[in-house]
Amino acid sequence: MRPLVSSLVWLSGTLLAPALMAQTPPDTAADCPHPFGLYDNTELVYQRQDERGKLLGTLRQRVVNLGSEQNKKQTLTTNTVLLKSGSYNAKNRLLYLRDLTFRCRRDTAFTDGLAQLNPEQLSSFRDRILTYSPTPLAWPNQPTVGSELPDGGISVDVRSSAVHIAEVYAKVQKRKVTGQESITTPAGTFACFKVEAEQESATVARADMVLRTTTRLVDYYSPAVGLVRTELYDKKGRLTEVRLLTAINKGGQTVDKVKYKVKKS
Fold it and tell me: Is the model's pLDDT at 145 over the cut of 50?
């Protein structure tokens, strides 16, 4: 995949991305009209909770642009959704803001590999040149239980004006569809596919200097709305964090601040 130079910048300790105005989608005849059924001004609200259900923060993703892409031969249309994604702490203070692009074509939706990157991984490289190379994560509408899904994530090349400094990456690998479950949240009840995977994050200064973290990741996704519930487990198999879809707001409706407590597995 061709490397993409990110437009993200740091300002007053916050990761920011340029604002984009919502637009009307073009008239396309693709098999997948919108990734996860996301339309103009739709907002997804997630709560991040610890293993005891204590609120850690909130994630808000709002659709700001709908578009489409075509291959060089113009035989395949990929529809796109640009989201403004903001992460907030438990006191509703903005931690960072960034743009994510979701895509869909034929029977598969794709989430942005950038979403796997914790901005803190780049906190020590704020004055460096950063080149982002994302790989989208595929989410088929009708996967087969037991099937494997492609890896995804992002790699960031960190350089000065003269030399390479490090590679920072976050990837989701060993992805496997392990079942189907009905998941209920304050946003509704959704028929979901369960995908288990390994999440690896690292900073590689050189071959013998690697800072690596590996966790177990369990995603429940609905082809109709996207990710509904995500669970993170440490190396010992203990649940450490849950991200839960708590609201789907359309047309700029006000977000309801609902706390939904998750029972420890």
Answer: yes
| Residue whose C-alpha is closest to residue 181's, from 228, 239, 148, 238 | 228
Query: 79-90, pLDDT tens digit by residue?
Result: 999 999 999 999
- pLDDT (0 to 100) of residue 16: 39
Residues with Cβ within 8 Å of 105's Cβ and at least 6 positions away in sequence, in order, are: 30, 31, 32, 76, 77, 78, 79
Give the torsion through C-alpha atoms of 30, 35, 41, 43, to 10 deg: 170
Round the CA-based radius of gyration of the chain to a whole number and report it: 18
229 sits in the region (left: phi over 0; alpha: psi -120 to 50; else beta) called beta
**What pLDDT digit, counting tens, does each position of 157-169 carry?**
999 999 999 999 9
Arithmetic mean of pLDDT, 68-89: 93
Amino acid at 237: G
| pTM reported for the whole predicted model | 0.81
**214 pLDDT tier (thresholds 50, 70, 90):** very high
- CA 93 – CA 42 distance, rounded (Å): 22
Cα dist. 99→7, 33, 150, 169, 257 in Å? 9, 21, 23, 18, 23
pLDDT at 24 over 90: no
Question: Which amino acid does the sequence have at 56?
Answer: L
CA–CA gap between residue 88 and residue 162 (Å, rounded): 36
* Percent of residues in the chain assigned helix, strand, coil, to nearest 5: 5, 60, 35
Is 183 within 8 Å of 225 (Cβ atoms)? no
| Angle at the Cα of 33 from the Cα atoms of 31 and 34, rounded to 5 degrees | 130
- The CATH number given to 9-249 is 2.40.360.20
